[in-house]
């Protein structure tokens, strides 16, 4: 949480300067600040996924990381997974997805993330919250020593972000800020 | 207390020392340009079509930015938004389309909120013990403080099979003096016919969406999964195009125009009738 404080402050100041002109619209400057916060959360998720998947991670630590990773998500978030051989989406609860990742039967797993991302516009929902999608690409490499099998894939992850204006009390003053939560993630195996 | 602080500090710093690598870590695999070239989201298709982002997609252009909707940039973008590998859209048709869209006097842009485009979602539902495809058509509508996707139409073959109105001499009817008998012959009509739709007006069209919702609410049809998504666009005057997702090796991937049709008067209705497949 602590690490997000500078970004929250940035968002707060970005909000404060523009609130007078636009009460609920998101200006380009504010959008940029929200993108940074959202990307920070996606970065954390990517790090957590790499840790959970790694065979060098102790069981207890993996569980703690899963708890932290879950905190990034809005309630009821799901992962929808499809592969090149199976176009239909298989649905997993976020925790269940992490547990399956941890339990994969490889001796060595290496999860890395491509140096590219794409951030959509933010669209307003009927309830007033904003929603966007961040796309990132992940490379998975699993090695099984006994069978000598190597498995490798690249997946595209389209990650929902929910953006909401919230309030907090600081020294008796009500401060508004924009918060970001992660939502459903669509995981597609790519042919790349 | 000190022990607790040390434990918390160790816990937090342990993430940094863990073997995993996050997004943009040193040593991240480098994109060789394929992911950058790919039209990764439908949102990016809109932005590229309108020239509302930089070539690498990292900067969003807004009204007032020098390159916002720049004609030359749009030309470059739109030329890469066609499926060049499987769809067989002719070069002449693409050129004609681009000439219309990039017109110096009346350029045409896509708008997320202004209708004239919709999604076709092939989904799978469990119905009477079998997995059956259900095609859902969804459109964007304003609601509350924002927008939402709503189901506009549905195609479900088992429903279509039920409604098959006979024509000509095969069609039963209620004779024109039935009113004099207080419509007592309705008993025969309903009991002896397995095509009660024979007794409906010429303009009658079954409402498959209502039937579908009824079956869902009764619990006799249950969602399983989604297997395909595409989009249909009628926003550009006198043109129709289909947006499909191409997941394949190479640079011509992502959300691309997979079908393009120049519309003559009446064509739009014919294409819509074909897509919606309600009869």
UniProtKB/TrEMBL annotation, chain A:
<keyword id="KW-0732">Signal</keyword>
<protein>
    <submittedName>
        <fullName>Uncharacterized protein</fullName>
    </submittedName>
</protein>
<feature type="signal peptide">
    <location>
        <begin position="1"/>
        <end position="21"/>
    </location>
</feature>
Automatic annotation (TrEMBL), chain B:
<keyword id="KW-0732">Signal</keyword>
<protein>
    <recommendedName>
        <fullName>DUF1571 domain-containing protein</fullName>
    </recommendedName>
</protein>
<feature type="signal peptide">
    <location>
        <begin position="1"/>
        <end position="18"/>
    </location>
</feature>
